[in-house]
Design a protein that fits this description.
Elements (H helix, E strand, L loop, with lengths): L1 E4 L14 H14 L4 E4 L41 H18 L5 E4 L3 H10 L3 E4 L8 H9 L2 E5 L16 H21 L7 E4 L8 H9 L11 E3 L5 H6 L15 H13 L2 E4 L4 H35 L66
Parallel strand pairs: 1-2, 2-3, 3-4, 4-5, 5-6, 7-8
Helix pairs in contact: 1-2, 2-3, 3-4, 8-9
């Protein structure tokens, strides 16, 4: 997924692609380099900005018990971008891009129901909501009506609160993200959104402090237990620059010097179960992803060979009590048996040795119809 920011203030490339001509040219270049999806965003959600409900709705955001809606009226941080302004930036680019690349799969990065509706009517096929239906709950109804692919992201609170939040322990952080994504899934289900349309995003940098992002990345495979494909967006994030500070005179690496770190983080995400990666440099990401996928597939083949060996040992062994040698065919798990783990299992109460549990690797759910809308309102991809 290639990122095109149609904003004056995005942290990574704000202002570079603000005009329709520049944005369309950049999107076409990404598609030519091999991007499967182009993600257009017309509002920055970097730390410190204020988010607001869709223009004309006059409704307060339902942010959950941990977030105060009273703060939305305070002048702290950059002013919120209205739905009208967001659409003025977005729609000319979306329409022009589809005019020159009519079969391109275009995602729109928005949390506003009004903007999502306008984008879907103009031909977008995916709505990428970084809040997971939490900042403007009416967006779930729009997605149910139009039937696009949906990215449900996790955000811990809102951007102008992120820098004041307490840091969580790694396991507590993983539980927070998992519970938040489960709540978004429940909202999607309540509105009748097809399960095959949904992809989950852990939300790196969205309400996660510096070290929390690395803790989450190391434990990302645990989110596969929810049973949905994962999207990871780590490209150029500030926590990557901070980790390189000792190489840059004690200050965070500048945006332009984070490409190698972005590829390293992306590779780690793929090896921890990500099926989609959101990137700024497409060609380099594709090359790195090919290697990561080869490692993933080799790891799966190694586990299959080990399982076959276990089956042969079980068949040749004398009769004894054994546990099932196989896990469910598609049961997601984050546990990989270490090569150093002894294969011999402890004896049971009768003195017989039980077969060890089957080795597993995290299961990456297959992406089937994500981003395709057939026979529904709006543009249909042929």
């Amino acid at each position: 997924m290639g990122v095109v920011n149609i904003t004056p203030d995005s942290f990574s490339d704000g202002g570079q692609f603000l005009t329709p001509d520049a944005a369309v040219a950049h999107a076409v270049r990404m598609l030519s380099e091999g991007a499967d999806v182009v993600d257009l965003g017309a509002e920055s959600t970097r730390p410190g900005v204020r988010v607001a409900a869709a223009s004309g709705s006059n409704r307060e955001l339902e942010l959950g018990p941990a977030v105060s809606t009273d703060r939305m009226n305070e002048p702290a941080g950059a002013p919120a971008v209205s739905a009208k302004e967001e659409q003025a930036r977005l729609l000319p680019v979306l329409e022009a891009l589809l005019a020159v690349r009519p079969h391109a799969v275009v995602s729109v990065d928005t949390y506003k129901a009004d903007t999502a509706r306008a984008a879907l009517q103009a031909g977008a096929e995916i709505i990428n909501d970084v809040s997971g239906f939490m900042w403007d709950p009416a967006i779930a109804e729009v997605c149910a009506e139009y039937g696009p692919g949906v990215v449900l992201g996790h955000s811990r609170g809102v951007p102008d609160e992120w820098q004041e939040q307490d840091e969580l322990e790694p396991d507590a952080l993983l539980k927070t993200v998992r519970d938040g994504l489960a709540a978004s899934l429940a909202a999607a289900k309540a509105f009748g959104i097809s399960p095959s349309a949904v992809v989950l995003d852990p939300g790196y940098g969205f309400g996660k402090r510096y070290s929390e992002n690395y803790a989450l990345l190391a434990r990302q495979a645990g989110l596969l237990e929810l049973g949905w494909p994962l999207l990871a967006g780590l490209s150029r994030k500030s926590f990557l620059g901070r980790a390189l500070a000792d190489l840059f005179g004690g200050v965070s690496a500048p945006i332009g010097a984070r490409e190698n770190a972005s590829l390293a983080a992306m590779t780690a995400a793929i090896l921890n179960g990500a099926s989609i990666v959101r990137v700024h440099s497409v060609r380099a990401a594709i090359e790195a992803a090919r290697i990561a996928d080869a490692v993933w597939e080799a790891k799966g083949a190694s586990v299959a060979i080990e399982q076959e060996s276990l089956d042969e040992e079980a068949a040749a062994a004398p009769p004894r009590k054994v546990r099932s040698l196989r896990t469910a065919a598609v049961a997601p798990t984050s546990k990989i048996r270490s090569p150093e783990t002894p294969m011999e299992a402890p004896a049971n109460e009768d003195g017989a040795r039980e077969a060890p549990p089957a080795p597993t690797i995290p299961y990456r759910p297959e992406i089937t119809h994500w981003g395709r809308r057939q026979g529904r309102k709006g543009r249909t991809k042929h």
